[in-house]
Write a structure and sequence with these properties.
Elements: H1 2-23, E1 33-36, E2 47-51, H2 62-74, E3 78-82, H3 89-93, H4 107-121, H5 123-126, E4 133-138, H6 140-150, E5 160-164, H7 177-184, H8 192-197, E6 211-216, H9 225-236, E7 241-246, H10 267-278
Parallel strand pairs: 2-3, 2-4, 4-5, 5-6, 6-7
Antiparallel strand pairs: 1-3
């Protein structure tokens, strides 16, 4: 029994460390940020902070972090993977936190604010155009992507936002409950005020920067209606945006060349065309 408990402990609390090792060395001055810089000869001057998904309880660093960063790097875009604070793996697997241990909102918001501050203040060093800094995120990371502008309490704001199959609402019937629990905690998830406060569709404003939004109808994890809510709110506020809804592709494909479907993998080409138009 003791060996079994030890095994469970190692799985639950070592997983985040494995992800950090895969990422390599973080940038000096921000231990949660990992740079994948474009070749100087191909540098577009664009920078993207990448927010992996994981229900605000863990982080998919491989597919939605490193894989995305390397793809962006290959097309001349400087990318920075953000290992933002999340609850912990036990909150994801077991559905609860032991004694409410673990990070929760606004920890992740503070991390994306710090990441934006870092990229802005080191723009000259990395040959980045400060008018071309944006955020891209997946699933719960998509929610954090929009939060990077909507709830940002600093002067370092992104110029474009790319939520991919994002968690959007924390109060609607289509809410992804696991992400809400990860963000707000076991008891905090029932706080109606916080649910409304973090429901993106309720806080879009006309000054929101351009948005590139993608999801799939057959998504088995985050109901596709989340993106429809966001699209409607963006449209109602006359925010410049592109919404692409694929019929197939599911969830969690990131920038993979094998995950998802041939249809959903088109999003990368769509993004490249979009970013060239808006910047």
């Amino acid at each position: 029994m003791k060996k079994f408990l030890l095994y469970i402990f190692l799985i639950l609390f070592s997983a985040p460390l494995w992800a950090g090792e895969q990422l390599g060395k973080s940038v000096e001055g921000n231990e949660r940020l990992y740079a994948y810089l474009a070749d100087p000869a191909a540098n577009s001057g664009i920078a993207v902070i990448v927010c992996p998904g994981g229900s605000y309880s863990w982080l998919d660093m491989e597919t939605e972090g490193i894989g995305v960063a390397k793809w962006l790097q290959s097309i001349g875009i400087n990318s920075f993977v953000l290992r933002y604070r999340v609850a912990n793996v036990s909150a994801y697997i077991l559905g609860y936190r032991v004694l409410e241990i673990g990070n929760k909102y606004p920890n992740m918001l503070e991390d994306i604010e710090d990441a934006l501050r870092y990229v802005y203040t080191h723009a000259n060093e990395y040959a980045i155009d400060t008018a071309k800094i944006g955020v891209m995120g997946f699933s719960a990371g998509g929610h954090l992507t929009m939060s990077a502008y909507l709830y940002n309490r600093t002067s370092y704001k992104p110029h474009f936002l790319c939520p991919i199959y994002p968690v959007v609402s924390m109060s609607h019937s289509v809410t992804h409950h696991r992400s809400r629990r990860g963000a707000l905690g076991v008891w905090g998830q029932f706080d109606k005020t916080m649910q409304d406060s973090l429901s993106l569709e309720k806080h879009i404003s006309p000054d929101c920067p351009p948005v590139f939004l993608v999801n799939c109808v057959d998504d088995p994890i985050v109901k596709y209606h989340n993106s429809e809510l966001l699209d409607s709110a963006l449209t109602a506020n006359n925010v410049k945006h592109t919404y692409i809804q694929y019929q197939t592709g599911g969830h969690g494909f990131g920038a993979s060349s094998t995950k998802g479907t041939e249809e959903s993998r088109q999003w990368k080409n769509e993004f490249l065309q979009w970013i060239q138009q808006v910047l």
